[in-house]
Amino acid sequence: MASNTTGTSSSGLNPNAAAPVWRQFSFFDVVPVKDPHDLESSPYIFKVAAEISTMVSSSAGMLVADIHGSVHLLNREFESITSWVAHVGGRVTHMVERKGTLVTLGEEDTVKSPLLKIWDLENRDKKTGAPNLLRSTKIQLSNRPHPVTTVALSATLSHLSIGLGDGTVILYRHLDQSLAGSTSLTALPKSRVVHESPTEPITGLGFREPTEESPNTYLFIVTTNRVLCYQASGRGSGGVPTVVDEIGSGLGCATMDWRAHDMVVARDEALYICSTDGRGACLAYEGHKSSVHTHLSYLVIVSPPFFPTAAAASATVRNFVARSANPGETDITKVNVFDLDNKLVAYSGAFKQGVREVVSQWGKIYVLSTDGNLLSLEEKSTADKLDMLYRKSLYPVALNLAKTQNMDDASVADIHKQYGDHLYAKGNYDEAMQQYLKTIGFVQPSYVIRKFLDSQRIHNLVTYLQELHTLGVANSDHTTLLLNTYTKLKDVNRLDSFIKTESRRDSGDADELPFDLDTAIRVCRQAGYFEHASYLAKKYERHEDYLRIQIEDAGNVKDALAYLRKLGPEAAESNLARTGGPLTEPEEDQEASGAKQPQAPGPSYLSYLALNRAAAIAAPTVISAAETATPPSPSIKTIRADTISAPRRGESFYEPAGRAPTPPPRTGSAGTNAAPASAIIQVPAPGPPVKRLSPRIYFPHFADHMEQFVVFLETVARRRWGQSVDDKPAGSIGIFGRKDQDDWEISPQQHQRQLTFLDEQHEALVDKQDQVAVWNTLLELYLTLPLAPSSASGPNRTNGAAKKSELQQGSVFSERVMRDKALRVLGSDSSQIPFDTTHALILCSTHAFTDGLVLLWEKMGMFEDVLRFWIDKHNDGSSPDASDYVVQHLMQYGPEHPELYPLVLRFLTSTPELLRKHEADVKEMVDYVDEEGIIPALGIIQVLSRNGVASVGLVKEWLVKRIKESREEIHNDEQLTRSYQLETTSRRKLVEELSDPEQPKVFHNTRCAVCHAQLDLPTVHFMCGHSYHQRCLADHDAECPTCAQEHSVIREIRRNNERLADQHDVFLAEVKENGFEAIASAYSRGLLNVNAPRPEEQQQPGF
């Protein structure tokens, strides 16, 4: 009867106790092996099974020995590869093979003692084809021979052991060295008798191979009554074998396990596992056993033949009886294949006529029956075996099987998944969750989570989600779900434990969290666990999240401010840009002490937005302006220094470089405490500039705090770029200050030198854009303030604060002061105070700021727009004095821009009322444009006569004067014309005379034109009328010396004109500039008739 009971007792099993039945499966299929040439029968070599003496497996193939002394090496088709006679005239009793070396033990007729032969299967004799014989010797220790019962060969060929029927064990050491070092057939190492027991025949031998844990080789010796262990190598070897167990076994019922680690001893009552230290596990399996064999990790047990009955305890036998017609006619042999690791029977079958041999070869179990049939037990695939176990719901067995089969992790996880599904279907949720936990990393978490979303199973869900985070495979959704379950269960302790987990279980990085930090913070905030959310944000330096929690959720503004003071400059500024909106609300309103003048509201986060980026921001400090009225701007604690001349890090905003910072007030509220003016210390030189943030990122936070916005922008412009429009001492407008605050004012030249520290031009460009944005916004605020009390005050201010704000507006933020600042901005040099002119024009137009519009138009040279603006004002009747402004601006712009006069003349003569009001101005304009030649007289007449407003009497005197002057000009032009006509006539007559060769020329000159002496022969006369002594003329001088200079000048002018004729761009430029005058001048210079013959090409006058 089979049993799965295990034990370690050496006294055996209790015969009266009922042993549970081993789980039995059909993991092997029985396949008959057929001869490849005769598919109806078994392989030919097994036809006569009675002649088979032994069969063993080998690396070269299956070895079969017969009673005639022959050995056959078979291939997979069980065809003989080679055969040879190993023992002549005898038989082979035992065979064992390792690494291609075969050891045979047999009997021969001529020798009384058993013969030991060693063969080389890899090298064969060229003549016979048989393997080479390496050694051959007799096994004889005394005169009386004893049969060999068993043999064992170590895997390394270093040890060979032979057991005899008289209880003697022979050991050959260093066999491998002997085989390699000598060619003599009898050269074997000296044998050693390691055990003798005359009354206990040797039934089994086996070598335990050396391992890393135990580098020694041990020999197990099994007798009919005992199991012994002998140390064959290593330190301490060669002693007396030690008794491992007092229970032995029959012949063939002892074998080494598949790891070659322990000896398995099979007895009728149980299976015993013996190690070098003693007997180990005892597996109860009752029944007679004739032999045991190993196949991979399985143990094959063969029972002796018996007659089956329907009352047999074995289910295999009962099934055989049920299937057979005449089961009692023949005996059967039962073969069981045990899986010792998983404690199950992998196969159990009955074979008729008995079993002769069992061999493990090529991954299969071959069973040779006594009638010559060869059967193969082929193991099913792992998938088939698992399916079989799944159908029987044997998931633990499936898991053990997967482990022994070395399946991959994904396959094992799939078994756990199916096991969990099975337990879940049975309602065993706790155990199901334990299985699902082992699938993490292979099964989608959503598959498991959906099963446990019910509120009754939420504790199991928490367990699964916690393990996901512990293993580091959770995502943000898992974190959200886990935290929601904590909050739903109100389990603060587990929430604390989860939140304060330092790192993953398997991670070496102490900073790596087992959950998504952003998700954890978000869920804790949504669930109202602000303390946990702020803990995470603060610990892991999520500054923005921490500030939002304290400000938006917990409403703890003081803690937020204290946290900001501890941050570095960059972190403080960037987080203020994101979360600074609520901090613009004052902490408390300060009441006036002594004086009735209202004080500024309590310190707000504006203190952080000044320009001193202190690493350790000091406590709130308020400094009032000395000997000046206290302005109504917020108290500023510290100011950020983005420029070199600004205070260094750690200095107060109000303290210039070289001065001691003002100590904080003794009370928590910001009052009017002022620092002693004499507190001065030596301050080291400022360090290099730090990277500056853009002030534009803070603009949205001042939406409801316009007064503070003005203070902030003015402070930034003054401290960062040295730009200010205040004509008063620093600190008297916009911020609290002192007289000595002028010390830290910087000039534009100093700021320009600071820009040289910028590493990249991009930073300079961004800095310029920031300046423009600041001044654009300031200009808009100057034109917007003062606001109505309802809009100027924040939504949370009390009525008292609103009234106080109104009082403040009456001084610093009054319309007069704001518009005056706007004018100073608009009138400043663009290099000193940059702003967008187009933006400024839109603002001035939107807010009806006339002075600003006029000033901008004047700066942009848009003088006509100024005049048209006032003209439009007059036309729509919004300004009664608009016409006076038109005349005034014309007098201002007219001398440099005469094109404005026609526009003004048309305007002043557009209506009778305007003409009556500005009649004298019109007369003066007419006289001026006429004198300066700005407008032709006809143009003036056309302008004045376009409508019926202006009469002739308006310009009667000017017309009379102009007519007289025109008549004089006409008279003068007529006289000039007549003189030009007379000169032309005389010139033409002269040309005709000179051109007529028959017309004689009479010379009346009596003196030389050069020396002025009396002419004498030889004399030279030129047609131009000049006469010379021949001696006074140069050689080859064919031109009159007197006229030659005048003619050369004319020729040079003509050549220049011809060159200019090819320079069309110059000509076109003159035409665009002077119009028709340029064309007339070109005609007069001959530029448009360059093809006319040159004067020098014409015939010169002769003599």
From TrEMBL:
Every RING-type domain range: 1008-1043
EC supergroup of this enzyme: transferase
Lineage, opening ranks: Eukaryota, Fungi, Dikarya, Basidiomycota, Agaricomycotina
Catalytic activity entry: S-ubiquitinyl-[E2 ubiquitin-conjugating enzyme]-L-cysteine + [acceptor protein]-L-lysine = [E2 ubiquitin-conjugating enzyme]-L-cysteine + N(6)-ubiquitinyl-[acceptor protein]-L-lysine
Record protein name field: E3 ubiquitin-protein ligase PEP5
Keyword Transmembrane helix included in the entry's annotation: no
The protein's Enzyme Commission number: 2.3.2.27
Pfam family, one: PEP5_VPS11_N
Assembly mode: Component of the homotypic vacuole fusion and vacuole protein sorting (HOPS) complex. Component of the class C core vacuole/endosome tethering (CORVET) complex.
Location in or out of the cell: Endomembrane system; Vacuole membrane
